[in-house]
Amino acid sequence: MNIDGFFDTIVSSLGIEPTHQNAYNVIKHILLFALVVAAQYLLIRLTNYGYGKLKFKINELKTRFLKPVCIKKYEFLSIDRQEKVVFFILNILRWAIILIQLIISIPLLFSIFPRTENLAVQLFSYILNPLKKIGWDIIHYIPNLFVIVIICIIIRYVIKGVGYLTGEIEKGRLKIKGFYPDWAKPTYSIIRFLLYAFMIALIYPYLPDSESKIFQGISVFIGVIVSFGSGSAIGNLIAGIIITYMRPFQIGDRIKITDNIGNVLEKTPVVTRIRTLKNEIITIPNSTIMNSQITNLSESARSGGLIIYFDVAVGYDTPWRQAHQLLLDAAVITPDVMPDPHPFIYEQGFNDFYAVYQINVYISDADKLTTVTSDLRQNIQDKFKEAGISILSPHYYEVKTTSDLQPPVKA
Length: 411
Fold this sequence. Notes:
By secondary structure, the protein is of the alpha+beta class. It has 11 helices and 10 strands.
């Protein structure tokens, strides 16, 4: 039985004679319309039912088939996260299937009635023409796509080769005269950035609609935003590159920048972080470092010893040789003071009430600068106290008797 015979049977059962052609056709079209709507409704219900069954089945079997995805010790995708990703993809597929059903059924509904039959054809053209155009564009774009893939593969393996050489230099296996191992990583980052920029420049002409005015306008707009919004960041980045190749300090070094003294915690392309003697973490822009005087205390300590010095004021009634000896005795018993080179004394000046002596000692570890300075000051006080000599800084007045002011009798 064909479709017309099927509808003739249904209409006859309703008591409508085929001779009433107009009423007959209207009822046939209405029944067909209802049949398509009902079929579409059942298909949507069936699609949702299948989606629900798949969700239940995946939830039931997830521990058997899904395993956590880890990068080193970091759990990148747990089982629950993978389940959510799978559900998300299934949900997209569900709506895609429903959308395809509606794309087919809606024009079909319009084609049932003669007055909307042309509209159905037009709706089909609205749907099919863009899909057809997209399909032909994809087919015509395949050669360009192959070119892009080949360029990406070549650049990727070049970067891998540079990364391998960088690792060998950093580990000290490959030595290049005048090229330090700590230059390896920043140099690799610069080369990688340039290679990616070169890759983008090669790929750009092969992108879809790369020659259109809209595409070019967006590119210029993005470039303008980056130029205006990253001026200081680019300045800090360039300063960071220059600092890297200047090598004024390394991670862990104790340095002095302006009034800040501390150990270098981190060097980034934009900022440098140091931990001060008071356990404060200071972030300094690299452009500020470039414009400041940098004192590397650790480098001085490693390359022959860092000199700690400070002034001690002693009255004129104390012979300078005795003052020198007391200062040197205090330096010798101070922990972490290097015996060689030997501590030494400078005469710094003659004031109204006292002479100024500068004690200089060598240390091999800049991290102990504060401790050694404190210990040395304590030992100097002890030595001068034992000898009965007052340290006059800050200066104070002592009341002397006449006999105290007499010059010493020569033997």
